[in-house]
Write a structure and sequence with these properties.
alpha+beta, 12-stranded mixed sheet, 211 residues, outer membrane lipoprotein receptor (LolB), chain A, 12 strands
């Protein structure tokens, strides 16, 4: 558990479901975000994740494959380090480190509280949980800012950048002064996904920790 606590930014960010591949509609970033939430039922994409620290610059870069099945199921499968996944099955969120034979788990209702992932776990009005503002065009994308209304949220703000028909980037600023940036490629909208992707059964000998 101490090992997990030393990496709070990683744990918080992988719990945040990527919003990706929204249809391009009028209304700026907010309109595109609304369109995404109303149209995507499943998703598969490649992702690149980088952690930015204001004093140290980029401190970590990761990549892998992301799977989403609405409502409330997702899987982050990391290419490096190998055998590491973050999985939500609708009731529990798991952080699995297969090479170490360890798995951390937390009730999904608690793990997603105050995070953008909550939008996918349940059917909610955005405005009830986030202050939302269009930020205009920059870097070739239309931007929208989400600020959690939950005072206990670990996130200060979320910036979503839409490029054409897709969400090109998502930046997450947390209370630890770090920003995690996600970029997406090879997007597949509404694919048929194997239900086994969202099931985790700890192998014999796995150490289990409740976070």
């Amino acid at each position: 558990m101490n090992r997990l606590r030393r990496r709070p930014g990683r744990w918080l960010c992988v719990l945040t479901l990527c919003l990706a591949a929204a249809p391009a509609l009028a209304g700026g970033g907010k309109g595109r975000l609304d369109a995404f939430l109303g149209s995507i039922q499943s998703l598969q994409a490649r992702f690149e994740q980088s952690l930015h620290d204001s004093s140290q610059g980029i401190t970590r870069e990761l990549r892998g494959t992301f799977y989403l099945q609405r409502p409330g199921k997702f899987r982050w499968e990391y290419a490096e380090p190998k055998d590491q996944i973050v999985l939500a099955d609708g009731r529990t969120v798991w952080l699995v480190e297969g090479d170490l034979r360890q798995a951390y788990h937390k009730a999904q209702s608690e793990a997603l509280k105050g995070t953008p992932a909550l939008l996918l776990a349940e059917k909610l009005r955005l405005e009830d949980h986030f202050a939302i503002s269009d930020e205009g065009a920059a870097q070739g994308m239309e931007w929208v800012r989400l600020i959690p209304r939950d005072p206990d949220s670990q996130f200060v703000e979320v910036l979503l950048g839409f490029a054409g028909n897709d969400l090109g980037r998502m930046d997450l600023a947390d209370k630890f002064g770090q920003v995690t940036r996600f970029s997406f490629s090879e997007l597949r909208r509404n694919p048929t996904l194997d239900p086994k992707l969202f099931v985790y059964t700890p192998p014999p000998g796995t150490q289990l920790f409740e976070h």
